[in-house]
Write a structure and sequence with these properties.
The protein starts with a strand and ends with a strand. The protein has a single domain (2-208), classed as 3-Layer(aba) Sandwich (Rossmann fold). It is 34% helix and 22% strand. The strands form two sheets. It has an eight-stranded mixed sheet, with helices on both faces. The protein has a two-stranded parallel sheet with strand order 7-9. By secondary structure, the protein is α/β, with parallel strands linked by helices. Helix 1 (11-22) packs across helix 6 and helix 3 packs parallel to helix 5 (130-144). The protein is globular. This is NAD(P)H-binding protein. Residues 7-196 form the NAD(P)-binding domain. GO terms for molecular function: biliverdin reductase [NAD(P)H] activity; riboflavin reductase (NADPH) activity. InterPro entries: NAD(P)-bd_dom (IPR016040), NAD(P)-bd_dom_sf (IPR036291), Polyketide_Oxido-like (IPR051606). Pfam families: NAD_binding_10.
Length: 209
Amino acid sequence: MKVIIFGATGSIGRLAAEEMIKAGHTVSAFARHPERLKLDHPDLNRFAGDALNAEEVLNAVAGHDAVVITLGAGTARRSVIRSQGTLNVIQAMQAHGVRRLICQSTLGARESWPNLNFWWKRVMFGALLAPVFRDHELQEQMVAASGLDWTIVRPSAFTDAATRRPVIEDVSPAARGLDLKIARADLARFLSRQLGETTYLGRAVGLSS
């Protein structure tokens, strides 16, 4: 399968590219500076571009079978890269007839809000990262209304090391007492898996230890 990853030089995008290549897919890495992706493989292509530039996104999506969005804004708290970049991706997919979309969001969005603890509800998403959270919610609304074959993936907070408890897949909105952590490597493997599975087609799926 020919896959393009938007946000491929981020911490999740890089690992997802590696996992997808291992699984036998041909991966295109779309980023403003794709040369920063420290991965050398014959099945890896690089596209330099800005997800906020609709024309660049349109040109990049052509010829692919699936799209994976792992867009992030680093430390910027008021960026609209997730929502506006995702809108450009959706419109490009619709224009080229590309159906499969896997979009990374965050646990806590929409009906998964009850999964969060006080710290995440009131301090992080309620105050410090409120604009980021609103952009995630807008992103999800666009994906769900796209008419594409979409899956929204909602990970909890990232760690580099393995989590203390096993990761729960498809976290119920009723789940409480979660550690609210997931290893980046576990998330990358899950994103790669979705290219060959339809279990969560047309659904949002939460991941957390």
